[in-house]
Structure formats: structure tokens, C-alpha cells
């Protein structure tokens, strides 16, 4: 078991956790959500954000034996500790999904553009399913599921071209993969590149807020505080 050696040590401290989030709090969260996180990440290469001090992290891409970081039932408690705060998985060369990353520091506008994009992509014939995920920070990802695996470049182009063809249907000004202003939403499709990473569902962000699905009807009332553990 990876029970923390120093369970009361504070790892995160911010507006959401003014008294601090301890090693034991993080460990308990990942033990409670073990099956969910394993189901989401099984077979995927991971990037781990490991806390070295309060609100300070290093990025781990390889384990001690210089192998890729992955989660499976036999080594879950070796990889997951009270300091393994955030898990991001890496895009393969072929995928059956793509990620639309909404990038803006204004949470209200983030919810507005996410809602419009969700509605737009719901009409795309190549889309098998859609889901909205709060990233645990300021904004959202839209996961676009395809019916089969395709080269990741094809997926990125398909998502990009559909947006370009229909951008006049979006009632909010935005940029695509080029952030020119913190007040204008940027639709970043660069998660859809081989070896690029994005946060896993059920992982915590480095804020201590969890990556979680938000229904299209619930997003209007969704608050970041709803993602506290």
C-alpha cells in the first residue's frame, strides 16, 4: 500500500482549500476512485504531476526503471500516493476521440463558449458522442468520440475543419489555436497531437479540484467549487 508516510503534510493550499489539502486527503480520494481512474486510464501512457512542496510540482513521464508510467491494478498503489496529485494521459498515434480545449481565464465566458461548441458539434455527422469535462482549473474540455480509431492528425483536422466551416454559427468571438487576448476564448486543438497530454477524467488538477463531467444542461449553474473533493 502507498499509505502516506506523512499524512498530515499539506500539499495544496488555495482559495478552494484555505486550510490546506493534505497527503491523506489526496490519497483517500484516489483510493475511493481507484476503479474509476483505472477504467479511464488503463492501457494509456501517463504524465504525473508530483508535489515536492506546497503548490510545487515536478512532471514525471517515466518510472524508476525508465519505463512509461501506466496504471494497472497490480501497481496502482505504487504509482498513486498522497503526492501524486494529477494524472494526464498522452495521445497515441491513433485515437477514437479528440479533445477541444477551451482556453480563457473568464469562467462565465468559458461556460458560454463551451455550451455553444457542444451544441454545434452535436450536429456533426462524424461525432459518435460528446461530453463536457471541467478541467479543474479555469475552463473545460469537450471530448469528441469517433466511431473508430483514426490517425490523430485526421482527428485534429476533422474537428478543426468543421469549426471553420461553421464558425459563423457561434455567437461569441473566438480564436483557434492562437490566443490573442485573455478576454477572448481560444479553441486550442493542440491536445490532438501525438504525445500531447490532457487531464484524465477523475484526476485531480494541481488546484485540488477534480476533472469531472458536466452535463450540457448543468453547465450554466456549475461552479468550480462543485469540483472540490
What is shown here, in short?
The protein has 229 residues and is an alpha+beta fold.
Which features characterize this protein?
DNA primase, PRIM domain; 4-stranded antiparallel sheet; 229 residues; 6-stranded mixed sheet; alpha+beta; 2 domains; 23% helix
Which architecture of the largest domain does the CATH hierarchy give at level 2?
Alpha-Beta Complex
Could you tell me how far the N terminus lies from the C terminus, measured between alpha carbons in angstroms? 21 Å
State the helicity in percent bands: 10-25%
Question: What number of domains?
Answer: 2
Break the fold down into its secondary structure elements and pairings.
Layout: E1 10-12, E2 21-22, H1 23-32, H2 34-41, E3 46-53, E4 56-60, H3 76-79, E5 84-90, E6 94-103, H4 107-121, E7 129-134, E8 140-151, H5 152-166, E9 175-176, E10 186-188, E11 197-199, E12 212-213
Parallel strand pairs: 9-10
Antiparallel strand pairs: 1-2, 3-4, 3-5, 5-11, 6-8, 6-10, 7-8, 7-12
